[in-house]
Every structure is written in C-alpha cells, then in structure tokens.
Amino acid sequence: MISNMAAAQVSIASGAKGPVITTTTACAAGSNAIGDAFELIKRGVAEVMIAGGSEASITPLAMAGFSNMKALSTRNDEPEKASRPFDRDRDGFVMGEGCGILILEELKSALKRDAKIYCEIFGYGLSGEAYHITAMEQSGANMARCIRNCLDEGGVDLEEVDHINAHGTSTPLNDVVESAAIKRCFGEYAYNININSTKSMTGHCLGASGAIEAVAVILAIKNSIIPPTINLDNPDEKCDLNYTAKVSQKREVNIALSNSMGFGGHNVTLGFKKYL
Prior knowledge:
Elements: H1 5-14, H2 29-42, E1 48-55, H3 60-68, E2 98-105, H4 107-112, E3 120-128, H5 141-154, E4 163-165, H6 172-186, E5 194-196, H7 199-202, H8 209-223, E6 225-226, E7 249-250, E8 255-262, E9 266-273
Parallel strand pairs: 4-5, 4-8
Antiparallel strand pairs: 1-2, 3-9, 6-7, 8-9
Helix pairs in contact: 2-8, 5-6
Family: Belongs to the thiolase-like superfamily. Beta-ketoacyl-ACP synthases family.
GO molecular function, one term: 3-oxoacyl-[acyl-carrier-protein] synthase activity
Protein name: Ketosynthase family 3 (KS3) domain-containing protein
C-alpha cells in the first residue's frame, strides 16, 4: 500500500500546492498530522493547511491481526458495552472507522476573510516510549513529558487545563498507564480535570482516532459540553480520576488537551484553547 495517496488525492482535488505530507505513526497519525500542520503554519511555510486522518480498517486481515495480538474485546454478546475505558471489566478495544479533518489557518489570514473560528491550537507535544512495539512503559513518565511539552509550548499552566480527551483505548494496560501519566504531570490537580474517552462511543478508529478526538475537543470548547465515557460502570482502582462517567457534563472549557498514543511508542498531545 502506498499510504501517501489519501493526502495526494486531497491535494489534487482541492488544488492545494503547499506541503503534502502523510504521517504513519499508527494510532497517533491523525494527531501528528494536525500538529505538523500547526508547526508549518507557525514557521510561515503555509497560511492554511488541511489536516486530519481517515481510516477504514475493518477487514478480515486487520481483525485477524489484532485478534492474534489479544488486543480486541471479546465481549461479543454485548457489543454496545464492549468499549469501556477505565472500567475494571475492560478487556480490549473495539475497532472503529471514521474520519476527522480540520482546516488550520494563521489567525491574521482567518480574520482577514472573516472565517468562522472554532478555537486556537496552542501546543503540540511529542515524546517516544523507546520501550516496546505495542506496550507503553508503565510509569507513564514518557506520556507525562509529552503533555508537559505541549503546555510549555503554549505557555499554559497546569491549573488552567479544564478537559483532557484521553487516548483511552479500553485495554488493560493503556488506561492505567495514561491515568498514571496524567497524575504524574498534574499532581493533585489531575482530580479537577474532566477527562473522557470518546472511544467508548466511537470505538478505536486507529490512525483517524486522534483527528476525530480533536474535533470532539473543539466542540467541547465551543459548546461547553464534555462528552461522557460510557460503559464506565465499575472504575478500576488504578484509574481513579474524573472520567466524566456515563453522562455528558456542562462545563466551561477554556483549555483542553487531546492525547494519542501509537503502537511503536509514538506519543502526541494537542493543545486547544477558546478563541476570545
């Protein structure tokens, strides 16, 4: 498969002649695409970028591969309850398909054409696990550093963060490590943040997940409503934060983060803030 062809087709269809790039960082690819586009605009390479991710991977081969890895939930008798991030009875992720695309634009350019502005991106954090092809190092230190890198780029204090859309895959390891990373980064303030995993509702859209979740974060900021983590019936004792369980919550969201963690050790945090 020549994986760059999706970006190439968008460029051809839209006549976009700026940078045309494909990121192949597994479950972090959509977030990397948005972050890379953000950095290109910051550098003055482009004024406008089309960025995001798309995935249609529910095929016999992909299902067989993830099944052999023991990564998928086997709650086949209740598929609507199978994706249950941070719940003690979670047993793997549920594959999903989808697409999320953002139009990123330099602020002066957007104001000049009177564009509808949903929010601003303020930071793009990156780190690597350097640990295992599919697992994260269990202290959460590397993901914590990724989150901090994002906040530092935007000059945002820890106590300003209102909401985090977690990677939250519903696998036994991921949810514990990500919770540990958030606590490691924020300390006691972590308990004041509304965290969620929209994968509880969409399933895991793999390379598109970060982009889809970025859209969810942006709408949470715009609408002051944080989507829930459904199926969180019995919280894991190692996952003891506020995961916005079962029902959405009305909350003013000024600063929000979206985490992605890709197989191979690719960590990404995107930072968004309300446009005032």
